[in-house]
Amino acid sequence: KQTYIGPEGVLEKRRKYFYPCTSHFYRNPPQLVKGEMQYLYGHDGTCYTDFFAGVSVVAGGHCNPEITRRTAEQLQTLQHTCTIYLTQPNVDLAERLAGVLPGRLARTFFVNSGSEANEGALLLARLHTGRKGFIALEQGLHGRTYLTMSVTGLAMWRADPQLDHPQAQAVEDVSFIPRPFERGMSREAAARRSIDALKEVLAEKGGDIAAMIAEPIQGNGGIIVPPDWYFPEVKALLEQYGVLLIADEIQTGFGRTGRMFAMDRWGVTPDIVTMAKALGSGVPVAAFASTDEIAASFTRPSASTFGGNPVSSAAALAVLDYIETHRLPERAERLGRQVLDGLRELAGRFPRLVSDVRGAGLMVGAELCADDPGRGAQLVDEVLEEMKDRGYLIGKNGVDRNVLAFQPPLVITEEDIAEMLAALGQALHAAGEVKGEIAHGVRP
Ligand code: PMP
């Protein structure tokens, strides 16, 4: 039987052997030792319903038997060769992706992480257009390589000359424009302001810009869903200037938002789509896809040691089959409404705590104390801890870290959601009571 060193033992080794920048959630974090679909287990046997920890394991849940069986079979048959040798799982996967991606995005390049997919997409855009600049949204997040950190807007993740290390300056010519969201502004007005800024940048230097990169719905930025007209208008403007649109679907892809890809919701076909996280349901696999013409601009030798290896490809094929068989995008849409409705009901009960509820499918955020984000961030930490103790792992994000994030595996059930919402009502009540932020007469 496996013996566990426990959370304290894990923390001690992390402090000793990890880079000091390595962070973790919770004052008293659990040591996770087992996963079963939407459930995770601590070393002491505590069961947690996962509303965030598996943000990259959306499709089939943790250790989904159908997906792990097919992955394990491949692992025991042919584990690894790179793309310079012929194998079948990666070509089957590329064919499947061509079938689910919008428009003529039928070419896929396999890599190993989201950052690497975005890095490849950005380089590809430069090679194809012969231009150097990029446009990105403020508060976006695109990865942790040098170039992707440079198009990342969120200060916490960005390569930035304002930070303490001038050596970590953003590397490239990147024009940031406001995202389609601003505290105290209507969604429409914020989106309009973003479009106006885009027009200005394009008018000034559109001819030097290779691509705009954007998350269709910002994840780490705090779950930002733009108005329906926003991305169609962005795409049309970019086309006028021959600027490519790179959709970073790393967090939104594969059913999470109620569509296979979030851009599908608005009928927008990007020029390049990047994918990772959910695609392998826990096994590292990532890709960027584009059209025949754009793909033809990539003329460098392209072998990647692990990109498109048989095991990752077999896992991704099993994931795509599972998503299709179980109609997971529809499921995410339906259950997402339950989460949104439940959170809105809580916002009605706790108006001084819950300021805004937003999301699409099973990518939902609840912003706490928008007028006092410091207090909001403190509350979020308290609620996260309290919910963990009650058996629910939820997430946090947003510029001020004051947004509760709900991104469960798509196999979550109505009962799981109803129970979580009931517990959340109690957790909010307990957290708000301390400072008298609960209206008189509201019950836990
Ligand atoms: N883009 C988005 C939208 C992400 O959420 C992330 C990861 N949080 C990345 C890129 C980077 O992906 P990876 O960690 O696999 O490099």
TrEMBL record:
Its cofactor is pyridoxal 5'-phosphate. Coiled coil: none annotated. Its EC number is 2.6.1.44. InterPro entries: Aminotrans_3, Aminotrans_3_PPA_site, PyrdxlP-dep_Trfase, PyrdxlP-dep_Trfase_major, PyrdxlP-dep_Trfase_small. The keyword Transit peptide applies. Belongs to the class-III pyridoxal-phosphate-dependent aminotransferase family. This is alanine--glyoxylate transaminase.
